[in-house]
Amino acid sequence: MQEDFHYYATYCAAMLAGYSHEESLDICYSAQFVDLCSRTVLVKLGAPAIAATTQLQLELMDARTDIAGIQDITRIWASFHFLPRDLYANKPKRTKRYLHKYRLICGPNGDLVKKTVELAKNRSLQSAGIAMHVMADTWAHMYFAGTPSLVINDTSGDFTELTGETGEVKITFRHNPSAPDDLENSIYTNSLRQRDENSIMNLGHGRAGHLPDYSFIRYRYMPAWDEYRLTVKDNPSDYYKAFSQMVYAMKYLIGDRADFEIDRYDQDSVSVYEDRIREILGRRRLSASDDWKAFGEELSGETIPDFDLDKYQDEYIQAPSERKDETFIGRFIQGAIAQKTMVSEAIYRSGNLLAGIVQIGGS
Description:
Elements: H1 3-17, H2 21-33, H3 39-45, H4 57-61, H5 67-80, H6 96-102, H7 111-120, H8 125-140, H9 150-153, E1 159-163, E2 167-174, E3 187-189, E4 218-221, E5 231-234, H10 235-254, H11 267-270, H12 274-282, H13 289-300, H14 313-318, H15 328-349
Parallel strand pairs: 2-3
Antiparallel strand pairs: 1-2, 1-4, 4-5
Helix pairs in contact: 1-2, 1-10, 1-13, 2-8, 5-15, 7-8, 7-15, 8-10, 8-15, 10-12
């Protein structure tokens, strides 16, 4: 997902869940900051590198792909962007090495989604924002894994966009990361196929480009993990479920619900605006930020400021060491470390070492 959903749509969901304007801004800022809190940013702030929730392209280009490097990559991407659906999934006649990667495939409504939301309960608004980012990405990034893997994340080059009732348009890929996607001509950028199993080009949904991040698109493709059989991804439907589930989850976090259950959605609050939300999700463009922003401002009657990466950095830098945890970024860092620790421990407990050897109960 992109800023349009992680920032503006998350604000809308928080408002519908009952948070105030200011609280909703803290939540959606934190949700978007997950995509930007790299080691580069943390080093600049003098903050602990362990709190990194993403890796910049330049960082990934320099990343090692030996076992230690793979574990570092997996801890970040599986914890925050490709939350595994089933760490005990099985597939007949597969090696343990294959299954360890197969079990990291992302998807909604797994046990780790429940643990992610429950972890944020009674914590900071920053932790709520982190949880909403992770939950939303389980819908957008389903069928891909947050670890480099050709046998899991590779796809064939045959992608087809499904339009209208029966229309189909062949998708063309190019490998120029500086060129914007061309929606009019169905030309998108994806990663260059590499035969090396652990190539960084085979991380996440790189082989599908930004298709998983666009709410409007429905497409058919053939993933490696399913033996290159045809799979259909319906983003408008999935994103609507993601939005409805975020409202449900945040009502639990705010205290309106006693328990959080997977595969539950807040239809009561969302259905009133269903036509508006589906229109936003289905409109074909590179970013839906303007539409989500307008919707959010109608809900609250307040102005939603643009996301500003530098907004809270001076507060953190200038705070004395004993007070840094009380700053906005300090609370985000605590939430990020808690989330990464929880997911890494769960992967390790399942007998999978791809996120490293974890001292259970440690930090």
